[in-house]
Protein: Phosphate-binding protein
Organism: Anaerocolumna xylanovorans DSM 12503
Amino acid sequence: MKLKNKVLAVLLTIALVGVLGGCGKTNNTNSNTSDNTTTEPTQAATETPAATDDTSSTDNLSGTVTITGSTSVEKILNDMIDEFTASNPDVTINYTGTGSSAGISDSIAGANDIGASSRDLKDDEKSAGLKEVTFAYDGIAIAVNPANTLTDISVEDLAKIFSGQITNWKDVGGKDATIVVVSREGASGTRSAFEELVKLEDAGGLTEDATVAEGNGSVQTTVAGNENAIGYVSFSYIDSTVKALTVNGVEGTPENAKSGTYVLSRPFLFVYDEAKASAAAKAFVEFSLSDDGQAFVEKHGGIKLD
């Protein structure tokens, strides 16, 4: 009997081990199922950043941006372009100084990415629906040869000189010599702004005897080479080769133009089709408004934004 009892005890022990082993396998299976379930939220969470990538970042900008328009902003834009493309090496920006009117018409026609203007848009240009962004202000300096003894001139006399009503320097306090009027080409924003500010049309328009020069640099060079010449240029083109007259007794400085005491001032604008502009074009416009961009405005005699 004792032997039978021992055999029975062994058999019961084996059976119990088998049952416990089966229970262990069931628990492992449940554990694996639980692990698979908890990994699903983790996979969903990793997809969220990809869906919210910041497309305004300049890290991946690329492409070519074409800018045409005002020559008054040439020095400012060249520095802005160099700085921007240094930080965005996959972006190429081509700027051509064609005059404000040409830059605006190019934007309307879709022939550029950004138009640069050194005057406000006219009513018919505004109707095209372009986005306008003012990135600086500028004053228009009245330039004469350093040998000219005149130091100040009134807006009224400027209108008379450029319309041909006054033709001798002695009539405005200078020496007895024929005045050589130097103006800009028809598409020039500087010319449009100057003529509007001095009300030249009311005085009869630009004299037929005027020498027309292409670009601020050409006006500067022409005036520097003729002691009887007078012209108008952006502040940034006044240097030792020409002399700036005060206008109505006020010096042409950025501070005076910004305050409004100097009457010959105007805005610098970017215009573009917002719906069609590339990310690179929009990023460049934004850069022009940044502290770095505004530093170049100030560097070249422009008036930076408040």
